[in-house]
Specification:
Layout lengths: L1 H46 L2 H69 L20 H9 L1
Keywords: Coiled coil
Organism: Aegithalos caudatus
Protein name: MYO5B protein
């Protein structure tokens, strides 16, 4: 089993290596082709007058700067989208924190009310109809506490 595992890993590494070599060969071919094109352009530009050479140089620089500008605009758009997404997430998290803090304060209020309701009341001799004495306005809270 170990030998098979090692053999499988070796085959996987060999396959990855061959893919990398193929990618590098393709990249090298593209670079050679680009270099040949630049060489042809350079030879042609040597045959042109100095004014035309300057104009071609300026056109190439304009094209380069335009492409760079487009890349920067694309990057800016991505960053703005990311900023909006992060702001939205921040608002959501802030809301969750506020809700959590509110629920914690409500729990502490309920605990204190519950503790007050659980305090021992001195017994007075009365004719009781039930086991608890409470005010009518505390009835919903009492029912809630009994249920929980």
């Amino acid at each position: 089993p170990v030998l098979r595992l090692l053999e499988a890993q070796l085959q996987e590494q060999r396959r990855e290596h061959e893919e990398e070599i193929e990618a590098m060969r393709n990249q090298m071919d593209l670079m050679q082709e680009e270099m040949e094109n630049q060489h042809q352009t350079f030879l042609q530009s040597l045959q042109l007058s100095p004014e035309v050479q300057v104009e071609l140089g300026l056109q190439q620089e304009i094209i380069r700067l335009t492409n760079e500008n487009l890349d920067l605009k694309e990057l800016l758009e991505k960053l703005e989208k990311n900023e909006k997404k992060l702001k939205k997430q921040l608002k959501i998290h802030m809301k969750k924190v506020q809700d959590f803090e509110a629920s914690q304060s409500m729990l502490s209020v309920e605990r204190s009310l519950h503790e007050r309701s659980m305090q021992v009341v001195p017994r007075k001799e009365k004719d009781f109809q039930g086991m608890l004495e409470y005010y009518k306005e505390d009835e919903p809270l009492l029912i809630r506490n009994l249920i929980t």
